[in-house]
Amino acid sequence: MDAGGDRLLHSSNIAVIREVYDSEYSPQCFSMELEKALESRCSIIVIEPSQLGDETARWITFGNYLHKTAVISGITSIVSGFAWADSFTPQAPLSIFSLLCTGLYTASWQFDHCVKYQVERDPRKLARLPILGALTSASPVVLVRKDDMHRKLLHCTVSLLSASLCIYRLYRTIK
């Protein structure tokens, strides 16, 4: 199985976007090749063009930070609601921030094919790639397909729970 557990690892599940500049439209061709590889749900995608690889890695990393921020602020909101039961000051802003991060993540990444991929940075795992010897780039970006259902469920649940607890406390205070 591949690192994400989605599919068996065969050479047909690996896509390599080669850095070959044969026309002035090569960067657009690289982007189209990446889109095709993402849509075909390859287990591993190796991106040799450095600009495209860096942009893709930054996009995925930003999504990861947004997810983590939503979860951490949601959990902190829940904990602060129990720790300071007489004050909304820490709980409400954290809950709102968690909901905003979850909403932005859902709106921006839900339909993006990159959401199913993570950047592989572990040198031991990279060394085991069967295609590694045939690469022409010294530092390609390697994307590994992983199931993201648990992470989506986690940050949505935490954000909604923190908002629900905040609304419940507000209701009890007003009542």
TrEMBL record:
| Biological process (GO), any one | inner mitochondrial membrane organization
Taxonomy, superkingdom: Eukaryota
Indicate the principal place this protein occupies in or around the cell: mitochondrion
GO cellular component terms attached to this protein's record? mitochondrial inner membrane
* Subcellular location, record wording: Mitochondrion inner membrane
**Topology relative to the membrane, per the entry?**
Multi-pass membrane protein
Q: Note the Pfam families from the entry.
A: Mito_morph_reg (PF14972)
- Keyword field: Membrane, Mitochondrion, Mitochondrion inner membrane, Transmembrane, Transmembrane helix
Q: State its role.
A: Plays a role in mitochondrial morphogenesis.
| Similarity section | Belongs to the TMEM11 family.
What is the designated name of this protein?
Answer: Uncharacterized protein
Question: What is the organism field in this record?
Answer: Acanthoscelides obtectus (Bean weevil)
